[in-house]
Amino acid sequence: MAMDGNVGRGILGAVAAIVLYCVSFWRIYRNNRGSRIVESGTLTIMVTLCFAFLLNVVDFPDWVFASIILLLFVLCMLTLFFVVQRAYQALRGRRHN
Description:
Elements: H1 5-31, H2 36-57, H3 62-96
């Protein structure tokens, strides 16, 4: 099966963009160890980018698609929980000072 040159360049460009994003997010993750907001947010973004790329390349069965969407939902809720927790701690600390 022959592939059009534009399709090959498009796939190569998408892979390069995802690799660059993942490397930069990995560096952010590594430099902010202990910050649960950064850790869970970075993981959520990396999973989302990889899944978005794979959706265009691979045809997933419905149960895999639903499982990954559920994973992304849980990761987003986890990140929001850490944001709310940090905001609550900041507000509580400001009232006591």
